[in-house]
Amino acid sequence: MTEEGRHAVLDAFGAVLPVAVAVALSPFPIIAVVLVLLSPPGGSVGLAFLAGRVVGVAVVVGVFAAVSDVVQKSGDASPLASVVRILVGVALLVLALWKWRGRPDDDEATLPAWMGSIERSSPGRAAVLAFVLSVANPKELLLGVGAGITIGGAGLPLGPTLGVAAAYTVLACVTVAAPVIAFIAAPERMRSRLESLRTMLVRNSAAIMSVLLLVIGALLIGGGLSGLR
Predict the structure, then answer these.
(1) Distance CA 144, CA 79 (A)
(2) 36-72 burial by CB neighbour count: b if 16+ within 10 A, else e?
(3) What are the boundaries of each domain within the chain?
(4) How far is residue 85's CA from residue 153's CA, in Å, rounded to a whole number?
(5) Which of 2, 61, 167, 213 lies 20 to 30 Å from 147 when distance is taken between CA atoms?
(6) Tens-digit pLDDT profile for the chain (229 aa)?
């Protein structure tokens, strides 16, 4: 790969790095993996959840990277990709405001009702749940769309495009992978730590997600406006 090619790959990864961090810090998947790890099956269900998470994140970023790459090669990529990034950014800002306004008081914070059954999940159900959280959750979907458009619009060859998408996926899934690996290595030691983590995330999930959506939304809008210019 030429020096120019390496710079292009680094630029593409640098552009999606904040989005990957935002996806990694999304509270719901972390809470969900903690719940499945604290269930009686523990590690086996956690591994299934991790597999579903990786596949879901990879599918979203891969599909939209491919679509963006096709548009890029058609010659209309710059304005269209920029407009889409702006629209995704605006949607993220709206979601950030909605999440912030609807955040509960500390003493009222509870898990959503659908999460109550996670601790009784089989490995197959856990994998499906992780996949759905990655592709059907509006916040995560918008973040993945933004990352895919950025990667596909970078104009990289297929190999580097897949490499950047894979690196994005690994980073986006690291906060689910880490507790699974740690639990398998030392289950008894990790139980109390996972309980504390669950309590903290349930209490602060809305505020955490609001800030992340606000920052990434602003970055996408800024990148889109720069592309239009």
Answers:
(1) 20
(2) bbbbebbeebbbbbbbbbbbbbbbbbbebbbbbbebb
(3) 3-228
(4) 11
(5) 2
(6) 677 778 889 988 998 998 899 899 888 888 889 888 888 777 889 999 999 999 999 999 999 998 887 776 665 555 777 787 788 889 888 888 887 776 666 554 555 565 666 767 788 989 998 999 899 888 888 889 989 988 988 888 889 999 999 999 999 999 999 999 999 998 888 888 888 887 777 777 677 778 878 888 887 788 778 767 6
